[in-house]
Amino acid sequence: MKNQARFPEGFFWGGAIAASQAEGAWNIDGKGMSVADVAMYKPDIDIKDYVKQWHVGPEDIENAMNADDDAMFPKRRGIDFYHKYKEDIALFKELGFRTLRLSIAWTRIFPNGIEESPNEKGLQFYEDLFTELRKNDIEPLVTLSHYEMPLYLVNNYDGWVSREVVDMFVRYARVCFERYKGLVRYWLTFNEIDSVFRHPFTTVGVVEEKYSDKKEAETAIYQALHHQFVASALATRYCHQVIPGSQIGCMVTKTLTYPESCNPDDIILAQRDNRNNNVYTDVQVLGEYPRHLLQYFRKNKMDIRMEEGDEAILKQYTVDFISFSYYMSMVQSINAEQREKVGGNLITGVKNPYLPISDWGWQVDPKGLRVSLIDLYDRYRKPLWIVENGIGSFDKLEEDGTIIDDYRIDYFRSHFEEIANAIEEGVECMGYTSWACIDIVSASTSQMSKRYGFIYVDADDLGNGTYRRLRKKSFEWYKKVIKTNGSDLE
């Protein structure tokens, strides 16, 4: 389907990866242990049981600290992007990428988070990486914290529950801004900051078993979230000071919820879920907590400690743009207990009979992306950037080395159509980075067999393989989409 230009000139087409899922090299050149190095491959647990897949308890941490290999810890090896990044960037250049979203591993810069001086080998690695991107005319979009906070801060400071971690993160951020101010203009603070309740250990370093009951754990998570909000605002402040002309955004999961019916009770349930999803952008874009959340704190007698000046910091240092991930929509119903359930990304809801479902149980809803773009833009009037969207699938490597992934092409085509429709309706969208443009270790299940990329990496869930990179059928298709700025989706 060839259309006239429906995407703006200068649209940032590209892809996205994360240090904790791609780099590997978990214990070389001075890198410290992060929460990602604790994540285990769990073949005995259903891949759709995201609660158990994500969960990390005290015993898991101890076992991981005593394990000095990567046998059952796939994120420790990733796809060896640490050593192969030039080869991979050459493939991204071939695809025509205008941007690559990637992250810095905090523990490469400050191995434990508490050091007075940064690790020079870590700093140099990212300088070389960003320089290589620039040489290939690819704009880096850099996330400061993408599920890899220092494990030392979890064990000794209860993660982000401690106010001291704010200062540690801000110091880390300032070091990054100073070192890479000539190489990176676009930044994100925390990946999917709203994931604090889906997987608190991975997001804010909260080990729920340390707390006496559910309410105490919930209070700790909200306290950690507040500290991340403050740290994000301060990082925004220093980014603007250190790098003139830079732009820094928040990053949230967009979880669109529909009511099952026109029953007002269904509508109220869906409205509640959507309202709660907006909390995280409200604070970072509008600069203040929504009244309904403050009311929730009072009603439940939650003492969320906010220091003098915190509210002013949040109000003064708001983000320049909103970036978000979008994978699925959900359904709410007053009869949810009697309905068939589906889930994905640790979100469970009523099955939508109008939508197909991926191999991992995620409902595929391209029109929901259009609705999300319009809702977000109408609410905040800030530029939007889709920085994660894609489908995890089982890909088959044929004997001749080809990977025929027409299902991936169909998925992206339908989503690009809806992005274009939203743009035509007035939405200001800066760019699109697919998740993940090259196969990497899954965040939720620590699998390699859950593949998202246009580029196949020859490795299995246990790390066996050549790690050779192969172009899938979708590679040439996405290359054409970028070359035509989205006007040719055939």
Explain the layout of strands and helices.
Blueprint: E1 12-16, H1 19-22, H2 50-54, H3 58-66, H4 81-95, E2 99-103, H5 106-109, H6 120-135, E3 139-145, H7 151-157, H8 164-179, E4 186-190, H9 200-204, H10 214-242, E5 247-253, E6 256-259, H11 264-286, H12 291-299, H13 310-316, E7 321-325, E8 329-332, E9 341-344, E10 347-350, H14 366-380, E11 384-388, H15 406-424, E12 429-435, E13 455-457, E14 469-471, H16 473-483
Q: What's the short story on this structure?
A:
The chain is built from 16 helices and 14 strands. The protein is α/β, with parallel strands linked by helices and 490 residues long. The strands form four sheets. An eight-stranded parallel beta barrel has the order 1-2-3-4-5-7-11-12, surrounded by four helices. Strands 6-8 form a two-stranded parallel ribbon. The chain has a two-stranded antiparallel sheet with strand order 9-10.
